Amino acid sequence: MGSRASSLLREEDIEEIKKETGFSHSQITRLYSRFHSLDKGENGALSREDFQRIPELAINPLGDRIINAFFPEGEDQVNFRGFMRTLAHFRPVEDNEKNKDPTAEPLNSRNNKLLFAFRLYDLDRDDKISRDELLQVLRMMVGVNISDEQLGSIADRTIQEADTNGDMSISFSEFIKVLEKVDVEQKMSIRFLH
Amino acid sequence: MGFLSSVKPVCIVLISFAVLALLSFGANAEDSPKPTTTKPPAKPTEHGPIYTAPPQPLPEPEKSYLPLFTLNYPRVQIPFEITLWVLLASFAKIGFHVYHKITIWVPETCLLISIGLIVGAIMHSVHEQPPAVLTSSVFFLYMLPPIVLDSAYFMPTQPFFENVGTVLWFSIVGTLWNSIGVGICLYGVCQIPALGVQDINLQENLLFASIISAVDPVAVLAVFEDVNINEQLYIVAFGESLFNDAVTVVLYNLFNHVAELPVVDAADVFLGVLRFFLVGLGGMLFGLVFGFVAAFTTRFTRKVREIEPLFIFMYSYLAYLLAELLSISSIMAIVTCALTMKYYVEENVSQRSCTTIRHVIKMLGTVSETLIFFFLGVVTITTDHEWNWGYILFTILFAQIWRGLGIVVLTQIINPFRTIPFNFKDQFGLSYGGLRGAITFALAYTLPNTIIRKKLFITATIAIIIFTVFIQGISIRPIIELMNVRKTNWKLGTINVEIHTRLMEHITAGVEDLCGQWSHHSLKDKFMRFNNRFIRKILIRDNRPESSIVALYKKLELQNAMEVLDTISGDISAAPSLISMHEEKASNKSSFKPKRTFLASDLTAMHEILSKNMYKIRERTMSYTNKHTLPNDSRAREILVRRHTSIRRSLRARSFQGSESARSQKYFSLPLGQSLDTGYATESIRLNADGDPALELHNRSVRPKPRPRSKQPRFSTTRARLDPLQELHSTVNMEDEVRAEESSHRPSRQSSSSSNSRSRAPLQRHSSLGTPSVGEDDPEGDEQQLESPPPAWTPEPPDRGSGGPRNPLLRRAQWKPQDK
């Protein structure tokens, strides 16, 4: 279980993370040992190489972007807090969660989950998915047999369906609206083990 | 026309194997010594006839000439017949794939049995007996091991170990449940006087029940694949079929022994249980030992590459035979042997040996299984059956009921322990997909003759096999599709929904993998650590990375070359455009197009394209589950190649802009000026864990352009498409000290230029579609590569906003800009 690892994580850290992300104590320790096992350099932070060592991410079409999502703007190291903060988006939504901080939205709310997905498209953070950004992601997700014209048409149709204000790109609110019938909470949740 | 052209080869095939069949029957019939032209005593012709002068006086000396043509059948009889039968069965397999739609709707086993039935009918009309192939020793010693080895070798180890508890639970407890349940019910049925089977006692019923509880659901997994059933179900079904066989054989032997006892008391039962565990665990232990010994042996086989595959086969077969010798579970032995051996051996042996091993195992397994089903068909006609409506119908009924019940009950018990519980659809799939297969048939055939009702049992077994294979096998696809379709939304969702949900699924799968989510994670981690520290050192030959760079690089280039050859046949540009669109050139540039109207047909076409071509998530087990083909990892490779290409392309783009980036670069694998852990990363992707040793990529792209260019490169869209398939660039391992790499860089650099030239050729062929500047860039750049020290690449330039004529595919901004 990595008793060596958990000793580096102090109780007050765990409490803070618990408050911020909503994970339970055992989940945090478990994820810490995972963090620790990924951290080959043993410097308390993960770099992109550490993530790329995971073979399953290499064959995930969106692997690079997922890795990128862990790193805050302009940085290439992520510490455990940041790691947990990103993972918190994938915590299943529980109905009986008493909101400790009524002003701040919990990280795993539907809105934040959608924002996570939105940010995977929108790399330049201008709050819009342009046609090009959409094409990039589409190209990653689709096999090599699709011609660019076909992909372009698909992208055009996608924007056409979603775009309500005519700016030829998908804003976050349009994104939310398009996915209103989709069970996002279930699709973007992972059962974290205790 | 198309129909005619497909009829012709079918006719040819049918005729040719009718001829073969008749030939083999003719051969069978002529057991008696053929008339030879040599005088008795006859000797083989190559030695020439030997004359012993008959002692009686002859009226005239007879001069015997040297025989020109002699026929000596008994000498070659056995191998000849075996070869003919195998050929016949294989021709049948070829015949099925002539019209490929058949295999979608009808599983191959059905077709094989049908052909066997036809051949059996022919033989029966000629009053021939099928060869005595299915004796106990022949089956258990020669035909069963390849099948089991095939299943075990191609089992994906990682998902298997994650689900090992469920697999063992279903196979052991499930089989016991089935056997005992069906046995007792049948015994109850036997008491009914109307059926006339009152002489079958409990032991024999139990024996029979244990035979028919061995399921072979693998045939059905191909159907599941299309319907996107979760991979948990795959691995459980796969593993269940494997261990099921082991358990059935053990139970069979147990009940066989018990059936001979006149009286069974509690001590016997207890001993029986004890023996069960002993047999199973002993088999596993044996397998482990042999697996490790095999791995150890391959450590030293570098000089004898040609016989490397032999060790794999010999060791696994030896494990099997030794286990048979000691009467412990030989199937478990060979399974564990294969599982342990695979990981280490595939690292030690050469690439060719690896391919050979896989192909031969697959071939042997397929042949063996084909033969068994073929014989099933033949034997169905030629044996004299004892048909008893009541018994057989009740058998089928009880088998179905108990299997379904068993699955439901067992799932209820084990679901709380599972990370992902099985829902109703999974359970239905598992229980309905329980076709009976090869083992059932063989075990029935090898029942001892002391059982009075042996013929009835054989008949009943054949009946249930044919019932399940034909009826369940053919109907499961429509049923599953119906169930699946009913669950999804009938209304055609919007394209948005389709794309975004797939995106979210990929994200979630990726994050799950990142967390290492599966339940035995810490155990696995511990084992991997132990493995790396001790076991690998002992069993694997070259555990140091630096010496394997060049070898790995060669492996990679070889695969790349083969891929180029495979895909060069123009399937890229030949993709028909399903969507009718307006004539718009340079369609991927401008974002301000007039609003296009999409017809409904366009929309359906789009949906179709997306559903067929979007990558499915988590392809770990899907590629392993078609029993009749080798694992296909082309999709995973596609994704990997494209990722590397895109990284490389963004490198090139960056180097075009940064003319100041030509600082001194002794180590071109390092990013400019930054510390080791920024910029592009090294990854050592070992897909070994998934059983595919062939793809091991060390990602450090090495194709930067030496000369900084001022203008923006215009990559054509076709080039972008070609890139993934054709340009797998050289990669260098970064795990070692950088200094140590310098010497090894030279060979890899030179090879990289050769790869450039190789991949350049197809590029130039298509360059007419693209802009000519691209074609010019490459040759110049490559020639320069060896001379000038390549400048380092730096990460992607900062995004300049969405306007501008930059090619979108260039702007794969995957990393945040590094410049501060």
The tally of strands of chain B reads 2
Which H/E pattern describes the elements of chain B?
Answer: HHHHHHHHHHHHHHHHHHHHHHHEEHHH
Alpha carbon gyration radius of chain B: 32 Å
Mean pLDDT of chain A: 82
Largest interface: A-B, 88 and 96 residues
The low-confidence runs of chain B, each spanning 5 or more residues with pLDDT under 50, are 27-49, 486-491, 544-549, 569-593, 657-820
Portion of residues within helices of chain B: 55-70%
The total count of strands of chain A amounts to 4
Layout of secondary structure:
The complex is a heterodimer of chains A (194) and B (820).
Chain A: H1 3-6, H2 11-21, H3 25-38, E1 45-46, H4 48-52, H5 55-58, H6 63-70, E2 78-79, H7 80-87, H8 110-121, E3 128-129, H9 131-141, H10 148-162, E4 170-171, H11 172-178, H12 184-187
Antiparallel strand pairs in A: 1-2, 3-4
Helix pairs in contact in A: 9-10
Chain B: H1 2-29, H2 73-96, H3 101-105, H4 108-125, H5 136-153, H6 157-162, H7 164-190, H8 202-212, H9 218-226, H10 231-260, H11 266-298, H12 308-325, H13 330-348, H14 351-382, H15 389-414, H16 424-432, H17 438-445, H18 454-487, H19 495-515, H20 521-539, H21 549-567, H22 600-613, H23 634-657, E1 684-686, E2 696-698, H24 717-726, H25 738-766, H26 772-787
Antiparallel strand pairs in B: 1-2
